Amino acid sequence: MATSLEYQNKISKFDKADLVNLWEEIKIGATPDRDQGKTFEYLIIRAFEIEGAAVRYPYSVKLDDNEIIEQIDGAIYFENFSCLIESKNTDEPMNIEPVAKLRNQLLRRPSAVIGIIFSKSGFTSPAITLARFLSPQTILLWTGEDLEYALKRRSMKVGLRAKFYHCVENALPDYNLLEMEVEI
After folding, report:
1. pLDDT one-digit tens code per residue, 89-116
2. pTM score, two decimals?
3. Pseudo-torsion of CA 125, 128, 129, 134, nearest 10°?
4. 154-to-17, 61, 131, 184 alpha-carbon distances in Å
5. Residue 131 in contact with residue 139, Cβ under 8 Å?
6. CA gap 120, 100 in Å, rounded
7. For the chain, first and last CA: distance in Å?
8. Dihedral angle sign, alpha carbons of residues 151, 175, 55, 28
9. What distance in Å separates the CA atoms of residue 20 and residue 25, rounded to the nearest whole number?
10. What is the dihedral of CA 13, 3, 121, 133, to 10 degrees?
């Protein structure tokens, strides 16, 4: 299996069209030479990087004795946004466990940090309900459809902004980008 640095070096050569093609492969499980979950993680981070966001690819957080205490799927920074990323490439909708895990990670960080969970297959009702009641932590939910919509329009940052604004105004972290009144 490829190392994290090898994944990062390979994905850094991808442009937006390559990412859209990779997404199509991920959707049908046609990436036999790659780890599906890791490929999904790196695709998301690269999509933001291409749009000019500062990013950190997947990494581990260690204690003083070098014991790993967290695995983070990535971080993105642009404008006033600082976000931790959690990515789930599963065939079933994601349940509450990753929401609870990310909430706990956010509790250890400055209050302005936003959590974002990308789930290829969407979310269960309990996961959505939990995300709606996490204040003061904010965790925005992105489905595979949201990701595809933003990838094809080269507007991951615009999509994140739209989801965040909707969450601020309506207290709903699961805004569907396909419902946007203005094309992104």
Report:
1. 999 999 999 999 999 999 999 999 999 9
2. 0.92
3. 160
4. 9, 31, 26, 9
5. yes
6. 18
7. 37
8. negative
9. 9
10. -100
Task: Please check whether residue 178 is in contact with residue 145, taking contact to mean a CB–CB distance below 8 angstroms.
Answer: yes
Q: State both tokens at 137.
A: 């932590």
Check residue 29 and give left, alpha or beta (phi > 0: left; psi -120 to 50: alpha): left
What's the CATH fold of domain 4-179?
A: Restriction Endonuclease (3.40.91)
* Low-confidence winner among 61-70, 114-123, 150-159 (lowest mean pLDDT): 61-70
Domain definitions of the chain by residue range: 4-179
Cα 142 to Cα 168: distance, rounded to the nearest angstrom = 16
Q: How far is CA 137 from CA 99, 108, 132, 165, in A?
A: 11, 11, 10, 15
Residue with tokens 């599906």: 36
Q: Is the pLDDT of residue 160 over 50?
A: yes
Residue among 76, 59, 53 at smallest CA distance from 8 = 59
The residue assigned the tokens 């990753």 is 98
